[in-house]
Write the structure tokens for this entry.
Amino acid sequence: MEEIQGVNIHVNGVVQGVGFRPFVYGLARKLNLVGWVRNTSAGVDIDLDGTLEILEEFIQLLTSEAPPLAKIDDILVTWQASNGYNKFEIVHSEAVPDAFQPISPDVCTCPDCLQELFDPSDRHFRYPFINCTNCGPRFTIIKDIPYDRPKTTMVSFEMCESCAAEYADPLDRRFHAQPVACPNCGPKIWLEYKNGELKTNVEGENALLEAQNLLGQGKIVAIKGLGGFHLACDANNARAVSELRRRKLRVDKPFALMFPDIEAIQKNCFINDKARELLESRSRPIVLLERKPEASIALETAPGQNTLGVMLPYTPLHYLLFDTDQFEALVMTSGNLSEEPIVTNNEDARTRLKSLADAFLLHDRDIHIRCDDSVVRVFEDEILPLRRSRGYAPYPVHLSFEPPVLLACGGELKNTFCITRSNYAFLSHHIGDLENYETLESFESGITHFEQLFRVEIKALAHDLHPDYLATRYALKRAVLENLTTVAVQHHHAHIVACMVENKLPGERPVIGVAFDGTGYGEDGTIWGGEFLVSDFHRFTRVSHLKSIPLPGGDLAVREPWRLALAWLEQAGINWDEDLPPVRPLIEQPTIVGIFQQQLKTGLNSPRTSSMGRLFDAVSALAGVRLYVNYEAQAAIEFETLVDPLEKAGYEFEINAGNINPTPLVRSIVQDLRSNCSKAKIAARFHNGVAEMTLQVCQTIRRQDGIPDVVLSGGVWQNLTLLKATLESLRGNGFQVYIHKLVPPNDGGLALGQAVVAATRLAESDV
């Protein structure tokens, strides 16, 4: 008879709230092993007795057959003498001081729950909060760890006898599913009109039916979801969509759309296998797809664009809403006034969304932390994240080293923050643009939540160089109050390092970093954004950059790109003749001509910028595509949609040592405009020219420094036309090129780079 021995196993990773303990229980019972399993603040502990052969088989199967939502980072195995157990059981969770673990993001409704949702014989039939260990809310309801019901927003719902039985049965799909509930004991939905009537008597199924009727009639309904409120209306109803735009103060920026199934999306959008995989994944992001010419969706959902941001239902409530023939698709845009944080609680919704919605579909399960929808694109059959939030956050990014515990505060736009602990970098959910008090509050409360959740005591703070960013001010103020070290990280250095980290590049090996974006504070006090850097984790050298020009009117020039176009015409020595599109505003407003000319001449309220994003804006205005914008990058986005894919010619830049001058390009565009060249060809020639210029500069740097690796980061690389052309030319000339696939190339990934740069500098200075 083989000798019985013992083993203790500690599992790190996302192993709580994902059915891991019942999986361990079932596996141990199957292999006739005895002992116990428990959650702790540090992960999952397992203690077993058995033969060596069976115990080794258990350890192998622990990884190979783990539940679908589990993410095992490492397993620590300690062999020991037998403990003399006579059964296998799940024991009570244990809080371990200062211990932490990764947390699962929210997960879409699983196929098993979906089947029960529409099964009249099931006790969960048409229950909007059906869930199990394989699906449902996680991150948005967790208040603390270990992940147990008393530490979630479900604490106020006492389980009925049937739910308690499922919750307590290790072989049940709902064993220790913390949000478990049913119509008898769980959260409930109801509908309210904004005038305060019918607050209590439109509940449950009647509330659903009334919401469907209202949406079918062209009304706007605020719907409380998983991580916040959505504002919904019929996506085929142009009048309803336009009214939502008017109320929300969102003039042109595209709305996200929700379709009932993949077939409905295919009727309206071109879709490949990777896009389908992302749409149907557990994360359920918004995926940007090319719109079909025959699409029935109202053009007002995405004015001036040939793409639609689409997603599938990800909660039971969504599926129930679409159980009707009154609409084909719904606009599902964030429940907020333009630029404010998404609303998460009922009272706030009644106040802040009162002027936006005709009715409210509410529920009484609290949202502990707001979490917007994630947005992605497909590029080269891979994911290109544009906003990393619900379904992905707070999954950590794994680091190749263990940094000190620090907080990186991110940037001003598309803010996320990042907290490091052990070899994890916990990048937050999407916070938004830190341009108002409400978003700053969301930023600060999110940081507090992460510090508690991951048991961190911040030792240092990383921040952007820009002194006026609210995130920078937060870092500097907190550093004084708590006597913490701060590390200022240049914006574009952070971009490049973020991309290096996610591609697991060694921090000491320099790369050619091509950082193209709209705005980033430079070390010389000007606005950078068209940068070629030689960079490692610690330091960078600005090797080359776009020629800087005045930004006449400062932020006003960002909203009115005609100003930038005129500035470039001035640089190119071209008169502001009336036939050129960006001259029109001066003709319409002759009183501003003198002031504008004075700004260019003296630099008054005209900071200098080398931004590639601003060059895109200028060329878009010069071509007559967009003289004014009402959301970030609108001019560049609409310019990209015009590109003629058959046009192979490209405009030329003047490239001198360290300076890239677009004035030859500006002259060529004016010449093409005056010869009636199409906007489609002008757009294509500009994109091709930028790609060719990027290759030429990278080749020069490679000859000088021998660096074969190129890293592309910054918001401009969300432009797939430019990205594709640049990758083809760089790869075709022997470069190894790295792009983003894990965190966004825009400022949503900035905090990751800040954290790693700061950690590297602190380590080298022994702070």
